[in-house]
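INTERNAL TRANSFER SHEET
From: sequence group
To: structure group
Subject: 2-oxoisovalerate dehydrogenase subunit alpha

Please process the attached sequence and return the structure record in the designated field. Keep the field labels unchanged so the import script can parse them.
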Amino acid sequence: MSPHTTPIVDSQNDLELTERVIAPDGTRVPNPQLDRWIDDIDFQAMRDLHRDMVVLRRIDSEGVALQRQGQLGLWAPCNGQEAAQIGTGRALAQKDFVFPSYRETGVMYTRGAEPGDYVRMWRGEEGAAYDPARLGIAPLQIIIGAQTLHAVGYGMGILHDGTDEVAVTYFGDGATSQGDVNEAMIFASSYRAPVVFVCQNNHWAISEPVGLQSQYPLAGRAPGFGIPSLRVDGNDVLACMAAMRWALDHARSGKGPAYLEAVTYRMGPHTTADDPKRYRDDAELALWRERDPIARLEAHLRAAGELTDEHLEEVQQAADDIAREMRAACIGMQTRPALAVFDRVYAEPHSGLQRQRDEYASYLASFEEA
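Return from structure group:
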């Protein structure tokens, strides 16, 4: 575990008490604990990670715009958390299975999501935004922390099957106060299930600051359950990748679960239904803007002479193209007839389902008669 148990209520110094590879100014920082996990990452790989983060931020801004224009019912922004999601997501093997919350747009991206997958659920067209089997991701989970239990159940199934897959679950700092998360860690530890817990500590559980629910680092809780943990700079994409590779190796090699706390910051609202100006200080926002994960990697690449204006233009064009496809997919979606809610509920039709369908059809018809 990262050897820091300093109180975290001081946002000014909190990020300094994490494991990192690249400092906020782009300087490379030697880290014996993390370096060996990313010794294969060259400058081209860094440019690819940079591209991923730029594309993700553009997808996120398009999601906000679509909601503001009435095309989506809601959107959960991930602006500021690009490194935590891209770094950990790119470390996963295709065979691993992810159990997300509702904010893991970047993890969806790393798993091969199509443009329409990002908006389908938020538009209310389907209960699941994508095919979980194709992407290797369970449906987005709205119930805070519930996905951690699902991940542990899946992990216990992996043990039963005798395979080397890993179940990975993402959640926020607020979820760590939920009983589900703590119960999930108990079972994962007791059964040595191959599960990686990824806590994206973005400092705000809606309007509740993390310092109110925990005076000490969240990663310090895991060892109490017998789970080793790392506390990493969540705005350092290389540190996030290295930490995730360590955690996956630990779980995949039969040593049981591992826990990551990626210390990052939610630059936007909790969702588009939230107004963070009512509870968040502008000075804190400005402080974290200086720690931007994309700008940090750009600074590192520029200092090494490995980033050109042509590359930046190409990346921005690619990001705009994906956003355009996402918008077109959203607006072009056709809402299914209301009675389609009964389709594919059971493999074989039965009288009880038909009766419910008939009753609902009669209910809908009453509006037409009125």
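Handover comment: Residues 43-68 form the longest helix (26 residues). The longest strand covers residues 195-201.
Transfer complete.
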